[in-house]
């Protein structure tokens, strides 16, 4: 029984590694985009008194979140992704996540802003993100969009954990789920 469990563990572990490898290759090759949920920031939603552009009024990355974002940047570089076009929500936790990746300048992008408290904005923001992705030159280098759970779920149907990369295949005006790359613990 123990050898069966060991074989199953190896089989599933190898499959996950191979799947991650194909996702990294797809991101490097173009025609794909990475939707990244910001790294861990304690709490849910935005606190009362939230002001865009004033980080003291927002949920910010925890020390573990800052370390995770830095480690994700190192992981991307280890996969041969040393530069990327980085768009980010204007929320501080997203901007900080994108900057800590260390892959190039960060472009604050209103279409990636959270609509957690404005659910009626979901369709409009999602359409704007799809247009941004459609018009991007992913052949020139990877495109990484750092945003929020609600935005990623609206675009992909996936509920990502903090720091997770959701790799989407660009299919004209649509995005198709290619796979998920979990953050390192």
Q: Describe it for me?
A:
With 185 residues, the protein is an alpha/beta fold. The chain has a single domain, classed as Rossmann fold, CATH 3.40.50.1240. The chain contains five helices and six strands. It has helices at residues 2-29, 63-78, 92-101, 122-135, 149-156; strands at 32-37, 85-88, 106-108, 143-147, 165-171, 174-181. Strands 3-2-4-1-5-6 form a six-stranded mixed β-sheet, with helices on both faces. Strand 2 (85-88), helix 3 and strand 3 (106-108) form a beta-alpha-beta unit. Helix 2 (63-78) packs parallel to helix 3 (92-101) and helix 4 packs across helix 5. The protein is globular, with a radius of gyration of 17 Å. It starts with a helix and ends with a strand.
Descriptors:
six-stranded mixed sheet, Rossmann fold, disordered N terminus, 6 strands, 185 residues, His_PPase_superfam, 41% helix
Can you count the beta strands?
6
Low-confidence stretches: 1-18
Tell me what the CATH architecture is. Answer: 3-Layer(aba) Sandwich
Mean pLDDT: 90
How many helices in DSSP terms? 5
Helix content: 40-55%
What's the domain count? 1
- CATH topology heading: Rossmann fold
- List the helices and strands in order: HEHEHEHEHEE
User: Which class of secondary structure composition applies to the elements?
Assistant: alpha/beta
- Provide the spatial order of strands within the biggest beta sheet: 3-2-4-1-5-6
Distance between the termini: 29 Å
CATH superfamily: Phosphoglycerate mutase-like
CATH class: Alpha Beta
Report the principal-axis shape. globular
- Radius of gyration, CA atoms, in whole angstroms: 17 Å
Strand content: 15-25%
Major sheet description: 6 strands, mixed
Pfam family, one: His_Phos_1
Organism: Parazoarcus communis
Protein name: Histidine phosphatase family protein
Keywords: Signal
